[in-house]
Amino acid sequence: MIVGRIKRKVKVMEYSVYSDFDMEQHKKTFINYLEVVIDENGKIMYAVPSHQEKLIKLACQKQKVTREELNAMCQKEYYFNFVTWLCKVSGACAVWNYHIEKYRLTERQIKALKALKDNGLYRGEI
User: Fold this and answer.
1) Residues 126, 100: contact at Cβ < 8 Å?
2) Mean pLDDT throughout 7-31?
3) Averaged pLDDT, 58-63
């Protein structure tokens, strides 16, 4: 006796900037687009909603502070270069097609940048 069958709809998510970064999927999905952040361990993440906001989130997590506390920590010399300061306090770097904003790169970040470059995604200097 068959009681009944349950049909389940499986929602297939399309690859997007809200997905975890995947080099091959990125190349299939985007043309001439690279807006990512690389953490100090070399993990590549999409810069969503923006590089600055992603860096703020990472910095708050690393420093174990609120957004307000983080903003209060910023020295005056970085007021007009806030993204560089965020890179410094988060340990991450911000990457676009032809440019990287950083304070200092770790070996793992350099490896990730080389992988992006080898795959034709990053075209700037390392």
Assistant:
1) yes
2) 87
3) 98
Buried b (16+ CB within 10 A) or exposed e, 19-50: eebeeeebeeeeeeebbbbbbbeeebbbbeee
Determine the Cα–Cα distance for residues 93 and 126; give it in Å rounded to an integer. Answer: 12
Q: Are 47 and 37 in contact (CB under 8 A)?
A: yes
Helix crossing, 51-63 with 82-90: angle to 10°? 40
CA distance 39 to 33: 19
Residue 13 · residue 19 · CB < 8 Å: yes
Give the pLDDT confidence of 103-113 residue by residue, as tens digits.
999 999 999 99
